[in-house]
């Protein structure tokens, strides 16, 4: 049986800028089954772009495409046939979609904002657009930023990734992402892109320096609407996009995030053009798996420490953040501090974080109670959280821990009858999860010390 057909390591990917490679697996009930030959066909709009013919080979990993030049922003169907040494044949199908492929295909301009230098709120870039009466066949957004960004279309989060576009050597290479927004469209639409400082301009390194790559956040985005009649509309970032602030009044990877639902929205007019020359390098499609929430943990134990602190234990050390159904406040705000351990007396402990604050803050009125919130441009290493601003009788099920890291596919599992060995294996697995948030942390720290990010 032919299974796990993948295109460039992924299942039915969209936004590929490279000539893809195809991989699959073969399994069967008969012993000693091996592949003897394969055939790959790649089809666009019913026409053959490549037919490998029947190839006598047992290769089933990263077989390269060798057909006609691929077109940008186009859909391709993949069909694979395999024959084994028992004379059996099986087939499977997949699909992929190309991205922009070259920077010339961006129908958009880099834009930035006029926020004052001392303004800590994240800028929000807003565009309203209207779609024609014709039925939409397909809709995509292509986006990247100097900073980290998230998008909302008609108040709905676009995609399931976090900390996009990831941490690369921005002076050499900047990734963009492709999103399917077909199901989110309405007759009248509003797209809002919020940009945080992230690794690009935020506090970073052992001495918490700012502006490692640049001093101004910026955004580049293009909406492509393809209609059933074949016509295409584009809405790209330009100086007609508005700039405002939202509920995120500060956000830093090391310092946590503050959201204020009582703050008045500030408007800063229209966007201005961003001069990217000398600031960023080549713009390329997403190359690695994105950062996602991969697992959620309920509270394992609620603790009132000897100091009287309200602490929640999730039972697992992880990198990520806490999703909260906002409870009733007893103070002016809800503060959630993160820590990896308790001290020997059983009190909350975060002194090992040195200058990192690792706290998220929510300011809100009664109207926002029960609203489900998460931070957007920060993450923390933690097992425990210390909560301030609520009664100690607050329901624990209002809080859940979200493990956040590169969405790597688990290759296998291991268990045995020795619980200590099983715990060691679990520690190894979670050590990997917690240190692969976009790029390997330990390698990242080594490169940071050397101030050399060319390889990433």
Question: Please, could you describe this protein's structure?
Answer:
The chain is mainly β and 456 residues long. It has 3 domains: 2-98, Immunoglobulins (Immunoglobulin-like, Sandwich), CATH 2.60.40.10; 103-287, Sandwich (Jelly Rolls); 292-410, Galactose-binding domain-like (Jelly Rolls). It is 7% helix and 45% strand. The protein contains 3 helices and 36 strands. The strands form 8 sheets. Strands 20, 21, 25, 26, 27, 28, 31, 32, 33 and 34 form a 10-stranded mixed beta sheet that branches. It starts with a strand and ends in a 6-residue tail after the last helix.
State the shape. Answer: globular
Radius of gyration: 25 Å
Strand content: 35-45%
CATH topology of the largest domain: Jelly Rolls
Tally of alpha and pi helices:
3
CATH architecture of the largest domain: Sandwich
CATH homologous superfamily label of the largest domain:
Galactose-binding domain-like
Q: What is the domain total for the residues?
A: 3
Instruction: Specify the CATH class of the largest domain.
Output: Mainly Beta
Structural class: mainly beta
Total number of strands: 36
Mean pLDDT: 92
Instruction: Pick out the low-confidence regions.
Output: 443-456
CA-to-CA gap between the ends?
38 Å
Largest sheet: 10 strands, mixed
Helicity level = under 10%
């Amino acid at each position: 049986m032919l299974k796990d057909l993948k295109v460039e390591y992924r299942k039915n990917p969209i936004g590929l800028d490279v000539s893809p490679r195809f991989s699959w697996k073969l399994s069967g009930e008969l012993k000693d089954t091996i592949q003897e030959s394969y055939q790959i066909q790649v089809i666009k709009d019913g026409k053959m772009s490549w037919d490998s013919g029947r190839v006598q080979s047992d290769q089933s990993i990263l077989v390269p495409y060798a057909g006609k030049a691929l077109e940008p922003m186009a859909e391709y169907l993949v069909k694979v046939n395999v024959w084994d040494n028992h004379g059996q044949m099986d087939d499977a199908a997949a699909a992929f979609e190309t991205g922009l492929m070259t920077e010339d295909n961006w129908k958009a301009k880099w834009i930035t904002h006029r926020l004052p230098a001392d303004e800590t709120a994240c800028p929000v870039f807003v565009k309203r657009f209207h779609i024609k009466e014709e039925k939409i066949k397909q809709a995509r957004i292509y986006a990247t930023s100097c900073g980290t960004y998230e998008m909302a279309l008609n108040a709905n989060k676009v995609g399931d990734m976090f900390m996009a576009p990831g941490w690369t050597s921005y002076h050499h290479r900047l990734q963009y992402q492709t999103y399917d927004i077909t199901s989110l469209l309405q007759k009248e639409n509003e797209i809002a892109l919020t940009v945080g400082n992230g690794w690009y301009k935020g506090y970073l390194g052992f001495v918490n320096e700012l502006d490692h790559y640049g001093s101004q956040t910026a955004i580049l985005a293009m909406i492509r609407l393809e209609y059933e009649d074949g016509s295409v509309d584009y809405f790209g970032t330009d100086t007609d996009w508005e700039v405002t602030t939202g509920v995120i009044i500060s956000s830093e990877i090391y310092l946590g995030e503050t959201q204020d639902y009582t703050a008045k929205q500030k408007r800063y007019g229209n966007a201005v053009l961003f001069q990217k020359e000398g600031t960023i390098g080549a713009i390329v499609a997403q190359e690695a798996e994105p950062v996602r929430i991969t697992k959620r943990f309920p509270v394992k134990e609620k603790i009132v420490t000897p100091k009287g602190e309200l602490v929640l234990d999730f039972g697992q050390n992880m990198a990520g953040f806490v999703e909260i159904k906002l409870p009733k406040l007893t103070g002016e705000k809800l503060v959630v501090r993160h820590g990896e351990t308790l001290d020997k007396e059983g009190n909350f402990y975060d002194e090992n974080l040195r200058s990192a604050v690792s706290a998220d803050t929510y300011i809100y009125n009664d109207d926002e109670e029960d609203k489900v919130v998460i931070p957007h441009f920060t993450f923390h290493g933690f097992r425990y959280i210390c909560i301030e601003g609520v009664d100690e009788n607050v329901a624990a099920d209002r809080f859940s821990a979200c493990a956040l890291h590169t969405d790597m596919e688990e290759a296998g599992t291991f268990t045995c009858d020795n619980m200590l060995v099983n715990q060691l294996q679990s520690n190894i697995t979670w050590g990997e999860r917690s240190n692969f948030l976009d790029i390997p942390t330990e390698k990242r720290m080594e490169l940071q010390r050397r101030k050399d990010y060319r390889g990433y």
